[in-house]
Amino acid sequence: MRKRKSSFPVKPLSFTLIILLALCFVLGYIWRILTTADYFRVKDIVTRDVLSVDLSYLKGKNIFSLNLPREAASIARVCPDCSRVRLARIMPNRIYVELVRRKALAFLKLYRFFAVDEDGVIFFSSIQPDGANLPVITGLETKVFGPKPGMRCENRELSAALSILKEAARTPLLRGYKIQRINVAGIDNITAQIPLPQDQITYAGWKALEKKDFLEIKFGQGNIRDKVVIMAGLINQEKRNLNNIKYIDLRFNEPVIKFKDVK
Predict the structure, then answer these.
(1) Rounded to the nearest 5°, which phi and psi values hold at 92?
(2) Do 193 and 178 contact (CB within 8 A), yes or no?
(3) Is residue 217 exposed (0-12), middle (13-18) or buried (19+ Cβ within 10 Å)?
(4) What is the pLDDT of residue 201?
(5) Range list of β-strands (E), the chain
């Protein structure tokens, strides 16, 4: 019995290889033109933000040869108040820059005031505490070391204070009761101060007392969400009598209300 001869498609395969090589050559030629032509050199940096960094070094570079993710990461490192930087090409010769600024949740008092966002990243802010409607966190001067703008503070006490602020901000019953200051003496000794509404402040001779009245809430670590809910319920339950409350203590299994006239 005669063996069949296997026929290998040499000609079609050779033709396909020639087509692929020609295509690679054409694409390579086009890419070389795109990356060397003056028409595609960056002339303008476009942004809707006020840039705090000089990006003029991008001008004159080829728009296709720029590694945009790497450039964005480089800009973010020298812009600590930005949570994200995005670069995009606008053909034929412009680069669009989008800066997403960090949103300050509070001010953190260390050797100076730093703004701090909800993730615990600290940064400098053009707004100072006396001109911003933001709470101030104190008591961590000896617990946060070597603070630098753009650094995330891995600190339990700061995390607890930020959790209190975040939960209070998202609780509807506390919309009229904004935390103004949080003092962190320890992880189980955190005191939040809430200014009393104007109708709760004691008046003498038709003039408000010079000392501002605050409602103090004491927190410990753990179950922050539940404790903030309890705080909101107690404040609304006693809203007609807040001026007579010295503090509310939420550090124990059962909340404790300490009145000023009780010794």
Answers:
(1) -100, -10
(2) no
(3) buried
(4) 52
(5) 44-47, 82-90, 94-101, 106-109, 113-116, 122-123, 136-138, 181-186, 189-195, 203-204, 207-208, 214-219, 245-249, 256-259
What is residue 64's three-state secondary structure? coil
pTM reported for the whole predicted model: 0.78
- Torsions phi, psi of 198, nearest 5? -55, -35
Rounded Cα gap, residues 186 and 138, in angstroms? 11
If one counts every other C-beta atom within 10 angstroms of the C-beta of residue 87, the result is 20
Give Cβ neighbours of residue 86 (< 8 Å, ≥ 6 apart).
72, 97, 98, 100
What is the pLDDT, as a whole number, of residue 107? 95
Nearest partner of 248 among 260, 261, 231, 236, judged by Cα: 231
What is the DSSP secondary structure assignment for residue 219, as one 8-state letter?
E
What separation in angstroms does the CA of 180 have from each of 23, 39, 100, 136, 227? Answer: 67, 56, 26, 6, 18
Below-70 pLDDT ranges, the chain: 1-15, 22, 25-34, 131, 198-212, 262-263
